[in-house]
Design a protein that fits this description.
Layout (H helix, E strand, L loop, with lengths): L1 E4 L8 H4 L5 H4 L9 H7 L3 E7 L5 H9 L7 E5 L2 H14 L5 E5 L2 H10 L3 E5 L18 E3 L5 H9 L3 H4 L1
Helix pairs in contact: 5-6
């Protein structure tokens, strides 16, 4: 199993912890959602981060402040959503036999791209995009959660992985 995570409003509540006008100050005090570190540290799967940035270096700063870099097998920082989709395609090509899950908050980006590429999708319906409504079937996630802590249960059920392995 391979899990590709979005960063903002997926691993931490960026829309509540950071404002555009003070983002470089705000980034210094961000914290991950409850359970993120435990999950990333102990869940038996490859874990990757796929994010995009508008301000050079900001995503790297977030990753460092959150203390998640060491838990990730790979990190992709893109400059656009189109590049994000290309990275997902590359991940699929590099890992053709893996069960790939895409976890994100945007139905018009991570969820749609994952679905288009035949991956399994988990929407964290939280943050500034929580009220987005799918405009077509390709934007509907396979699973929807409202808290990061629900991800373990979804993966257990979806992947049919034994509880003993995941504890």
């Amino acid at each position: 199993m391979l899990i590709v995570f979005d960063l903002d409003d997926t691993l931490f509540h960026s829309s509540a912890q950071m404002r555009r006008e003070t983002m470089w100050e705000d980034v210094k005090t961000i914290t991950a959602f409850p359970g993120v570190h435990d999950f990333l540290n102990s869940f038996p799967a490859r874990k990757m981060l796929l994010t995009w940035e508008t301000d050079k270096g900001l995503q790297d700063a977030k990753i460092n402040i959150l203390g998640i870099r060491s838990f990730l097998d790979d990190i992709f920082i893109c400059n656009s959503n189109e590049e994000k989709k290309q990275c997902l395609q590359l991940i699929k090509e590099k890992h053709p036999t893996e069960d790939i899950y895409v976890v994100g908050d945007r139905i018009d980006a991570e969820i749609q791209f994952g679905n288009e590429l035949g991956m399994k999708t988990v929407r964290l319906q939280h943050g500034k995009y929580k009220d987005m409504i799918p405009q077509h079937k390709i934007q509907e996630a396979h699973h929807t959660i409202t808290e990061f802590s629900q991800l373990l249960s979804v993966l257990r059920t979806s992947a049919n992985v034994s509880e003993r392995v995941l504890q």
